[in-house]
Specification:
This protein has 17 helices and 17 strands. The protein is 38% helix and 15% strand. It has two domains: 8-218, Rossmann fold (3-Layer(aba) Sandwich); 226-486, Ribokinase (UDP-N-acetylmuramoyl-L-alanine:D-glutamate ligase, 3-Layer(aba) Sandwich), CATH 3.40.1190.20. The protein is of the alpha/beta class. The strands form two sheets. Strands 8-17-16-15-14-13-12-9-10-11 form a ten-stranded mixed β-sheet, with helices on both faces. Strands 3-2-1-4-5-6-7 form a seven-stranded parallel β-sheet, with helices on both faces.
Length: 491
Amino acid sequence: MFNKIITASQMKLADAFTMQSEPISSIDLMERASHAFVDAILHSISIDQTKEIAIFCGSGNNGGDGFAVTRILQERGYNVNAYLVQFRTDLSQDCQKNFNRLTNVEVIDGTKDFPSLEGTDIIIDAIFGYGFKGKTRGWVADLIQHINELDKLVYAIDTPSGLESDGIGKGQVIKAKETYCFQRPKLAFFLPENGEFIGDWKSVNIGLNEQYIQEIDSKLFMLNDHVKTLVQPRQRQSHKGTYGHVLIIAGAYGKIGASVLATKGALRTGAGLVTTLTPRCGYQILQSTVPEAMCITDENEKIIATPIDTSRFSVVGIGPGIGVEKETKKVLKNILKQHRPTVIDADALNLISSDEKLLKLLHPNCVLTPHIKEFDRIVGQSKTSLERFEKQRKFVEEHECVVVLKDAYTSIISPITGNQYFNTSGCSGMATGGSGDVLTGMITGLLAQGYSPIDAALIGVYYHGVAGQAAAEIRGENGMIASDILDFIRL
């Protein structure tokens, strides 16, 4: 099953359950977590033992982790200096125990200048943990600003200090190059506003009771390689008709490339037959670039303007590059009225945002794939990503369709379970024109093969990201184009 994302309060309960059921003391669990962090960071990055490491430790349990990490690294021969960020007079019990195991810890309490760290190469942040609320204030906020301005390599233990696990960073927050989180990433890691604080993140298994975590009441999940269990093997005794007939409606004058990308996306994902409807100007382009697909043309030279009977097709994918002409709106309206399984993207979404009557035609066999701006045009502007997710959930409940909200961590909400999935595959090289057209084709191709709308969305989004990662390894993230993604689709 997909891994659940849980809140800070639920993580605290998971800690307590593990300690009681294993059983293990809190100090020993802290020791286990600290060893796991050290193993993870040393495996991930190369730290020369001559390099100087500074670890900033708060007065709570995250600080206790930091002191334990200091001792473990010192025992392994690393040059490490620990600093106690004493934002309160009393240390937590486990923090105090690990503090007492060290010598020569410099105390920072806001009464003198912060350390310059001129000879320091790496900073490890352990000031505040996952239970932090609100925003940093006073001299602690000044210290975090000081650390951020030093231009050092910063790595955070569990959560960048000053960031709420379940929300958006406010005030001064540590800007980490990498964050090593315990057992599960926090919801905050998937919010675009927090990207500058978290950097890249990696989960570190510290042995919390997984069965307990999976049974926690949460609608939030990570979309990861468990998605492969949803993929059905192809049967030896099958033919092209077994895997459905896709109709792609895409392209207008100057945007026939969108037709090509969506068409190839459907084919590469396993659709048995693909027919593409394009304006007359796209005929030669489609026939020469995608010989595996059939092509039908609209009577209009430059736009798609004539409604079509979809009864002979399994599914429809509509929107990439079609434009927003009133004639094209009539085509979309006609498609929605026929209630075929339909993937709606790009200009089709823009047409829906301009006409409430089209919204009312959405049905449970629809999958919408908007990026943030397209979604905002439909539901209105949101001040934060959390507000946008709430609107996404409300939209899904009201219209009973799947919404794939595209972003660095694409959010997919199921109308059946209400579960929200954050995709973990992909890379920044996919932020390029045409990438979404490929995804439209992929999800449409999966629907044609009989997958449910939610499974088609989950499989399509995840493997779209995996293909992008593979392409980046060959092309590099800066030089990737959408066509490269097509070359690496592997289901």
